[in-house]
Predict the structure.
Amino acid sequence: MPVTEREELTTVSAFVQKPDQWLSKAAAKPVSITRPKKPDITMVNREAWQNATSAKGWLSEFSAIVKYVVERVMGVPNPSCPSDFSWLSLFDLDDLRQFVDETSGTIHSVMQGMRSWDDLDNLIDEWRRSAIALNDDDLKKRFEETIKDIRG
Amino acid sequence: LTEITPNVGWNAGPYRLIAASNTVLKEWDEFAARLPVAAQETYERLTTFPLHHIPRRQFPQKGKRQKPYWEYEASSKDRVYYAVDLKAVTVYLAAVRGDTHTGAQVAKVIASRKASVASAQDK
């Protein structure tokens, strides 16, 4: 179920009359029970709720990453980067744009229900591991020499 | 450039596997002696599907300075870095690294980077 699925509204009395029917509906899309003078209650598929929770956490983190990239692009001294992503400092601006493009595209796909949050975790891990290789001077030298050998 | 020959019982795919230097050949031999099963899996994988993306396991390096290299997770600690020449149907091994991606190594990378940034700012 996409995180952005529209809700269906019902009332307490309607819900009490046919609870099984409303629970079945809630499995497919969010169902909100309106209650006069009390907070409304929304029933939602557990997976969708977990996705929404992950989305909230990721969007918070992603906004901090975008802020860091913008500061790098603008040449702000000591740009602030989320501590878990300090390895982003190893990449240049072109790479950072690519990173934002890939992560935002994946987040969008997850929100549409087409991909999972695991896909985003995998993508981030591949960038992080590439950063480790990028910081390895011996590996960098090997890459350069190997390319020369391949091209003769 | 030295072709890596498969051990008895290994299945070779269509791609040739070439060690780009004596250093990486030595690293491969050490890896194959230490983890023969993982070496067989790596050999068969790279000579058969060198450009098949498996999340976290086999993927192209990110960042334009690291193209066209791929990383293959040969074991929990061992990583193989390689490039592919499609026309020559050849995979070139650039490095075989053990103990590269441990938490301690990651922390070391980040610390050294922070130190170099701080040093540059002092100047």
About this structure: Chain A touches chain B at residues 77-78, 86-87, 89-92, 94-95, 98-99, 119, 122-123, 125-136, 138-140, 142-143, 145-147, 149-150 (CB under 8 Å). The mean pLDDT of chain A is 90.
